[in-house]
Structures are given as structure tokens and as C-alpha cells.
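B., you asked whether I could sanity-check this one before it goes into the benchmark set. Here's the sequence:
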Amino acid sequence: MFDGLKSADDRGGDVPKTKLLKTSMRHQFNEFFDHSTLHGIRYIAQNDRPLHERFMWFSFLSVGIVITSIIIISLWEKFQTSPTITGLDTDFHNWDVQFPAITICPLQSTSDEKVWEYVSSVYDVANTDNERVEIFYKYINAIASFSYSNIEQIKTFSDYDWLPKDNFKDLAYKVVYHCEDLMFDCTFKGEPYNCCSGFEPIFTEYGFCYSFNSRHVVLDWPWKPENYSKSGTEYVYETDNKLSITFNTHNTTKNPLNVIIINTIRFFFIFQKYAFLHILIYE
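And here's what the prediction gave me:
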């Protein structure tokens, strides 16, 4: 790299250190200009190029440096006077957030007493073949409890032509548990609540159920009050002291309940065998 430089001993005398420094700096600059990848710099130091061309490249480079410096300074001043601050604001407000739909499904949706009462209204049990009465009794139970789990059971009755083949929903209404047979002492958001004004009948894949805050309930069950109107949609508000619904049930050892909670993003969780249900919904 320093082939063009000679020591003081080779030249027969002392060489000033300043001259050596200037020679070294000149050589380093030439090396930088010749091998730099910055566009246009190498043309400035090439001795074989015309002077006016080297001056042109020098002018372009100087103008670029000046403009770049101005932009950098202006951006720095802008940042100092109006800095960009990134923060996470957790104080936001949601509205129209629906309280989750809650569906209560008894494991056995039919009442044995009501089924037997219906069978007795159709047949004179004392004077009817016992096998026929038993088949009819089991059929009514299966139809009124229709779900995915007993489809195969219902198929076993296909050979009995004398069994009812239509109006299954009306038949189910005659023998299923009513709302007051399943739950009582309800509270909603910490306040007393009429269970049967909010939990309305619905047919699901789990059988006959009662659903709270659902848009898909049935509206034509026979025992509904005369002044009945579908309950409105319940929402979650920031001012609510509690986001909960509670109720007591009757003998769940004999007839356990399936509790299905469906939220606004369509997830559901199934809980079984609650004697006392206390559902808390947290934000």
C-alpha cells in the first residue's frame, strides 16, 4: 500500500513527519475514492478523466450532500419539537355487547308423570295389551326427547304402523318439563329475576331445552302466558355491578342438567350436574 513511500534511511536523510502524514492521507483518500461504492465518488479521483467531468461529479456530489444534510436537520428538528410517542390506551368503550346465550337442557326432557298421563288419555290402559302400552310409552319418551343421541332408538319404532307419524312438536309439548319444573330463585346481574320470563323453550341437538337471551327460541308453546311477548336481548354495560345469572334447580341427582353457554364468537362450554348454578361472565 505504501510502495510509493520511502523511509528516511532510504532517501538519505530525515523526512518531516508532517510530510509523511500528508502523503499517507493523500494515498488513503485516493484508495477510498477508487474503491468506494457510493455513486459518483470514484470519478472525482480518477486522473485519466477530464477536469470538467471530475468537477461535474464533484458538484453533483456536493449538492447531494447539502440537500441530504438539510433534510436530516429538518427531520431532527421536527422530532425534537413534535416527537412521536407510541402508547397503549386501554380505556376504550364497547357497546352492543350481548350477554351470552345460556341454554339449560335436562338430561331427561320428559316428565314420567306427564308421559303416563298422556298415554292414559290415548289408551284405556286397564283394557289394552301391556306390550302395546309399553311400546307407546317408550315411543312418546323417545320422540319428545329427540336428539342426536337417540336417533337410532327412534328407528327401532319404524315397524309399528299404528304409532303417530306427525305433529311431533305438539306431542312433545304435552310431556316435557315446564320451566318452573326445572329452575327457581333466579337472579340476573345481582337482581331478582323471573326465571320463566327469560328462559324460553327451544329444540336443540341435545333435545328440548330452555334458553336465555337466545334469538332462536320457539314462540308457540301451549302453556305460555296470554300476554306473552318474546324477551328482549340482554346486553353487557359498563355500569353493571355484576355480570352473572344464578338459579336453583330441583333434584339434579335424578335428572342432571346440561348447561350450554354460547358467547358472541360462537364458543360453547358444557357443564353437567349442577344443583346450584352460578354463572359469572367477566370482561
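One thing to flag: Residues 8-81 form one domain. Otherwise nothing jumped out at me.
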